[in-house]
């Protein structure tokens, strides 16, 4: 295998939505971040985006949406309409919008951590995620810490870049 071709398929730049409240920096990864406006998601790779110079907005064909545990529960409840609008924007993508949640699935289902003071039953979470994955082009990933969620997001971006490269060849 040609090493130059293999190395070039791994992203060196990650676009980060400039509206991110607590952005990931990918410090442990060999990648630079660039703050831009993304139409969908919070993180994307430039080669997978089209750029609208009029609005200075990048439109990805694959992105990662970051959710803290609190944000995730808010998206399931009070901001459900706004979040489902985000999910709809990824409907035409070849690969699902990746939603990476900074808490473990076990924490949510056992009513611990962010769930302790919330009026959301674990069955509501299971039912909602089941419906969303059936009706929208979305995949949920849960990580037990912010650091692991950040690494998960980076690996999803790398994996997608490698798949795109393979599909082009």
From TrEMBL:
An example Gene Ontology biological process: DNA metabolic process
ERCC4 domain boundaries: 26-147
Species assigned in the record: Halalkaliarchaeum desulfuricum
GO molecular function: DNA binding; nuclease activity
InterPro entries on file: ERCC4_domain, Restrct_endonuc-II-like
Pfam families: ERCC4 (PF02732)
Taxonomic classification: Archaea, Methanobacteriati, Methanobacteriota, Stenosarchaea group, Halobacteria
SUPFAM superfamilies: Restriction endonuclease-like (SSF52980)
Name of the featured protein: ERCC4 domain protein
């Amino acid at each position: 295998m040609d090493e130059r071709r293999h190395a070039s398929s791994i992203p060196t730049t990650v676009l980060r939505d400039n509206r991110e409240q607590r952005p990931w920096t990918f410090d442990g990864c060999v990648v630079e971040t660039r703050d831009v406006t993304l139409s969908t998601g919070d993180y994307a790779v430039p080669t997978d985006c089209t750029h609208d110079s009029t609005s200075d907005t990048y439109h990805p064909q694959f992105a990662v949406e970051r959710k803290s545990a609190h944000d995730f529960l808010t998206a399931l409840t009070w901001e459900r309409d706004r979040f489902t609008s985000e999910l709809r924007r990824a409907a035409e993508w070849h690969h699902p919008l990746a939603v990476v949640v900074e808490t473990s699935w076990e924490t949510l289902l056992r009513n611990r951590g962010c769930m302790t003071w919330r009026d959301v039953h674990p069955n509501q979470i299971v039912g909602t995620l089941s419906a969303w994955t059936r009706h929208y082009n979305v995949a949920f990933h849960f990580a037990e810490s912010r650091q692991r969620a950040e690494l998960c997001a980076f690996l999803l971006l790398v994996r997608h870049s490698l798949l795109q490269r393979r599909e082009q060849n």
